[in-house]
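YM 10:42: Immunoglobulin superfamily member 5 sequence, as discussed on the call
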Amino acid sequence: MESFQKSILLPLILTAALPGLGFCYSITKGPENATVLAGSEARFNCTVSAGWKVLIWLSQGSPVLTVISSQGSVETTERFTSHNYTTGDEFTSELIILNTQLSDSGRIECSIQKPSENNFAFLSVQVNGSLLIKNSTLTVRENQTVEIVCEALGWAPAPDITWMTNDSLIDKSSYVTQQSPGSHGLHNALSTLTLTPTDTELLTCLADIEALPSPQNATVTLIFDNSATENDYSEDSRSTWVIVLAVVLSFLGIVLLVVVIVVAVRCCLKRRGSTYQNEIRKVSAEKKKDGDLVNRQRNGSENLGYIPEELWNTEQSPGLPSMFSKFASPDDNLQITSVPKVRPQRRTDYLISPKKIRNVTLV
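YM 10:58: structure's back
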């Protein structure tokens, strides 16, 4: 592209230069240095005396715009244009660079095809980055030292950072600024302010570069709170009570768990004991039944024909003497009785002087 531009400009330059070899003209005022923000316009002026034929603008050694006295401006790129002014015998060409970029920084030259008549200036394109303080408000207590960090990102060149408190500059010994390279040729800066406030203050971080009409700023409000100590004490007391309550509840929980375990164990032991006693009782009852059965077998059957001697005189049958006489002699004093149909009630009382009587039961 550059070779194509030069091939077009070279014939124009030679054509315009040949007729003017006998005339004396020069650059009366050349361009001046300019510093602009990226994205804005940059303007350079070059004034020449009467008799000029060709004026060429070069950026970093490459022609970007040509002005011919008989034809006017010849623009080869959209970003480079010009305005022309004529005042008396002088001609002024104004180069306008649109949407400046960081890569446009460098030498801008005005040439009229005379080695001794070239004038140049420098263009500096700067980038306005971001500036921030993370906390917009900060509460501090008495005798508390705080650090406020101001961060500048994506600047070109690296900004100059200063601090102010209530519209008064803070001494540079109170803060430290560190710079570091960023991406795409940009720069970052980090400034840390250390102070011990005694009252509520408005702190301002200022970042400045040459192209800025006024420094960019970020602010933070320091709220001085005397009751912060009391709040800390109440918070500590609250935390202490919470800890004590947690310990007490834990202890009560352990005690309750132990009580539940003890009750459960006692219930289990009691249940086992009652079961054991029931088994013992069952065994004892069975043994008792077996003992009664053995006693019954040993004692034999009850004599249902036995009649107490008290009832003999009143309940003798009429035929008893004749039957008795067959089995007993008169000296034996035996009495024979028949078995009653109804079982008489057994009496357990005995005579004072019992009489020996032999009872014989006929079956």
